[in-house]
Amino acid sequence: MEEALKIQSLVIYPIKSCRGISVTQATVTHTVKHKSVETDVGFQWDRYWLVVNYKGRAYTQRVEPKLALVESELPKEAFLEDWEPTKDSFLVLNAPGMSPLKIPLTKPSSVAEGVSMWEWSGSAFDEGEEAAKWFSDFLGKQSRLVRFKKDTETRPSPPEFAAGYSTTFADMFPFLFASQASLDQLNTLLPEPVPINRFRPNILVDNCDPFGEDLWDEIKINDLVFQGVRLCSRCKVPTVNQETGVPGAAEPTETLMKFRSDNVLMPDKKPRGKVFFGKEMVWNWNLTNTEDKGKKTIKVGDTISVIRKIPSRAEAAV
């Protein structure tokens, strides 16, 4: 008998492109907007913050790989479903050569206009001068730390893939799933193995076939139904050593190109030089069988049921 699919690990990334926090449980949230339009925003605390340059544009590891060295710490109780921050609740940041920085979790009073990330621009909370100096000193260039303004801003996911869904400062979609078996297979082909943190998934799955997550169209964890959106195409970030913040020249991208490129997986489609690792997903709150759809908690060890698959990788959205 096959072993059931299980959640092996959960990771929250409070600041976009900075180091993640491994947690035993995480709360899935969505927000009810004006006119009763509901939007998906992912895990509580995931990519709520963003480091920006003097023009308000996002910094990520693509251009600032040193961000991998910034460690975040949240109160343990922050991952409980009904917890609310107090004036004594902080996001604490550490980085090599820097003193710890404490960011209050209560709502900031200052607002930054003209914040932009990829296709989105809008306003965000500004975390103040101390945080700005801390990141400016660490990166060696003018920087500020901003927080997503969930009460007034919406950052839609691409509607051609997930109409009606949104996220905070994640790349495009609120959830990234990957499997241990996929990593294990890749590592058998690499000159030197890499850890899963190169790919920065939120949810790592055990007992899955290698790259079995590619075919997930709909899965269920407890009462929560997640919809597969598309295969995750990878930028240069997986080449960045997450322990040193130093980018490598080629791996693991070069090896992935040999068996995980669009040219290999989708031979009938026009090749665009992309490589894939992981599956991007949204929480389909319309299919959640519960009266309270506001927040839900999933835990390490929870079972994953695959409800529906797509027939082949060649038909996967990319």
Automatic annotation (TrEMBL):
Domain MOSC as annotated: residue spans: 143-307
PROSITE patterns xrefs: MOSC
Pfam families in the record: MOSC, MOSC_N
Stored PANTHER family: MOLYBDENUM COFACTOR SULFURASE FAMILY PROTEIN, MOLYBDOPTERIN COFACTOR SULFURASE MOSC
Protein's UniProt name: Mitochondrial amidoxime reducing component 2-like isoform X1
Organism of provenance: Camelina sativa
